UniProtKB/TrEMBL annotation:
<keyword id="KW-0547">Nucleotide-binding</keyword>
<feature type="domain" description="Sigma-54 factor interaction">
    <location>
        <begin position="139"/>
        <end position="363"/>
    </location>
</feature>
<feature type="domain" description="Response regulatory">
    <location>
        <begin position="3"/>
        <end position="117"/>
    </location>
</feature>
<dbReference type="InterPro" id="IPR003593">
    <property type="entry name" value="AAA+_ATPase"/>
</dbReference>
<keyword id="KW-0804">Transcription</keyword>
<dbReference type="InterPro" id="IPR027417">
    <property type="entry name" value="P-loop_NTPase"/>
</dbReference>
<dbReference type="InterPro" id="IPR058031">
    <property type="entry name" value="AAA_lid_NorR"/>
</dbReference>
<dbReference type="InterPro" id="IPR001789">
    <property type="entry name" value="Sig_transdc_resp-reg_receiver"/>
</dbReference>
<dbReference type="InterPro" id="IPR011006">
    <property type="entry name" value="CheY-like_superfamily"/>
</dbReference>
<keyword id="KW-0238">DNA-binding</keyword>
<dbReference type="Pfam" id="PF00072">
    <property type="entry name" value="Response_reg"/>
</dbReference>
<keyword id="KW-0597">Phosphoprotein</keyword>
<keyword id="KW-0067">ATP-binding</keyword>
<dbReference type="InterPro" id="IPR025662">
    <property type="entry name" value="Sigma_54_int_dom_ATP-bd_1"/>
</dbReference>
<dbReference type="Pfam" id="PF00158">
    <property type="entry name" value="Sigma54_activat"/>
</dbReference>
<dbReference type="InterPro" id="IPR025943">
    <property type="entry name" value="Sigma_54_int_dom_ATP-bd_2"/>
</dbReference>
<dbReference type="InterPro" id="IPR002078">
    <property type="entry name" value="Sigma_54_int"/>
</dbReference>
Length: 480
């Protein structure tokens, strides 16, 4: 049994929710105005609240702030019509857990949502969001704005609403769209992406809606379009701002009615797919310039998610590099100086540019060294940060705080000690394998240390180690 608050000026909805929730054994308190809420808010503790965002004598968002300040542990669900879904987005940013649209389509959804929110551990944690992102190779990082962005995307993923993603080129708009698809109830259906700016106007219409045999030169047979192929899945329209005005008209019809016709066709088809659109340009500015339809923007801009550029989250660059190297199986390390240079660069190409820089560095280092130094970076990065190398070297002369070798030694010693103290007879081969592993790891650790000390200069490294260059290559390539 839980205490549930309902705030809505429509008495029919209040009576409906009271009847529905009371039958489940819950105590329901009804408020039909802001005034009634003010008189009731301090009367008791509420476990859950259903809150309308529009009241005749108050703003639902202000009530939400008030309620969360008084009872921060009360879970809030906002109730909204289609025209106020954008308000629901703001409500979730202010602490609401979810929203439901009026009129209610399925009573069972309300019952399931109520029980889910009242069950301990039912609310997805930030770890759950990160786990899903990691599973599909999507990096979030530790920056607060990115974590809020993905939490918001996760909450709206399971709603049947159109999502508009804005962000500079290379910020990862398609990656976020894929995350939304995987977090949605459509995850078992297709995810199809199309770049509206990379296809000519005539071909784009055919790609989106399909065509019939003979509808144009080269149309040798009927062909399904992306709206039809996406079925009940997600259709990602990248660079939607590049679509022609003619195509925009047809996209508007699909979003409004779910209906479309193939090029050259006469039969009306229905689309069950969900649209996620993206643009690197400000579509509101495009509307003012006449290159984008205002009515289409209204249909697309139901839930808008904006991805921050990489230059605003450079502190996550070392974590991104570590994640990228791990996922691709590269046993490499970037020196502190190299990371300093990467973090001081402006990154006009964002994550896409960073990935290309990492790939370039890996290719240059492959077969030569396991340490990525500034020598492996393109000139455009090193020339934009003069003095970074000298400053970083003065603070920390190229030797990392921890190589992990100390922990390996502790573990190895414990394993050998366990073998020695065991009452059973230990196979000698196990001992020899352990000693061999110690030799390999020790040699590699001292080589890595020398390369860090010389900032990747192999000639100086071999002089200090007292070995030949050929021997160094052997240890780097064969002994790994």
């Amino acid at each position: 049994m839980a205490n549930i608050l309902v705030v809505d000026d429509e008495k029919e909805i209040c009576l409906f929710l009271r009847h529905l929730l009371s039958d489940k054994g819950h105590i329901v308190t009804i408020c039909t105005s802001r005034q009634e809420f003010d008189q009731t808010k301090n009367d008791g503790t509420f476990d859950l609240a259903f809150l309308d965002v529009r009241l005749p004598d108050g703003n639902g968002l202000e009530i939400l702030k008030d309620l969360k300040s008084i009872q921060p542990f009360c879970k809030v669900v906002v109730m909204t019509g289609y025209s106020t879904v954008k308000t629901a987005v703001e409500a979730i940013k202010l602490g609401a857990y979810d929203f439901i649209e009026k009129p209610f389509d399925d009573i069972g959804d309300i019952e399931q949502l109520t029980e889910r929110l009242l069950t301990d551990g039912a609310v997805p944690s930030q770890d759950h969001v990160h786990d899903l992102a990691a599973r599909i190779g999507c990096f979030i990082g530790q920056q607060e704005e990115m974590n809020q962005l993905f939490s918001l995307a996760y909450k709206f993923a399971q709603k049947n609403v159109t999502v508009l993603i804005e962000g500079e080129t290379g910020t990862g708009k398609e990656v976020l769209a894929h995350f939304i698809h995987e977090a949605s109830l459509r995850a078992d259906y297709p995810f199809i992406g199309v770049n509206c700016g990379a296809i000519s106007e005539h071909l784009l219409e055919s790609e989106l809606f399909g065509h019939t045999k003979g509808s144009f030169t080269g149309a040798a047979k009927d062909r399904k379009g992306f709206f039809e192929l996406a079925d009940k899945g997600t259709l990602f329209l990248d660079e939607i701002g590049e679509a022609s005005l003619t195509t925009q008209v047809k996209l508007l019809r699909v979003l409004e009615t779910g209906e479309f016709m193939k090029v050259g066709g006469e039969t009306v088809l229905r689309s069950k797919s969900r649209v996620v659109a993206a643009s690197h340009v400000d579509l509101h500015n495009a509307v003012s310039k006449g290159s984008f339809r205002e009515d289409l923007l209204y249909r697309l801009d139901v839930v808008k998610l904006t991805i921050p550029p990489l230059r605003k989250r450079v502190q996550d660059i070392p974590l991104f590099i570590e994640d990228y190297l791990r996922r691709h199986g590269f046993k490499l390390m970037f020196t502190e100086e190299t990371l300093e240079l990467l973090m001081s660069y402006n990154w006009p190409g964002n994550i896409r540019e960073l990935v290309n820089v990492i790939k370039r560095a890996v290719a240059l280092a492959e077969g030569e060294t396991s340490i990525i130094t500034p020598e492996h970076l393109p000139q455009k990065i090193t020339q934009h940060a003069p003095g970074v190398l000298e400053t970083a070297a003065a603070i920390s002369p190229a030797v990392p705080k921890s190589t992990g070798f100390d922990s390996f030694l502790d573990q190895w010693q414990q394993e050998i000690r366990d073998m020695w103290k065991s009452e059973d007879i230990t196979e000698l081969q196990l001992v020899l394998d352990s000693i061999k592993k110690l030799e390999t790891e020790t040699i590699q650790a001292f080589i890595d240390k020398s390369l860090r000390k010389t900032v990747g200069n192999r000639k100086k490294a071999v002089e200090g180690l007292g070995i030949t260059m050929r021997k160094l290559r052997y240890y780097l390539n064969e002994k790994k």
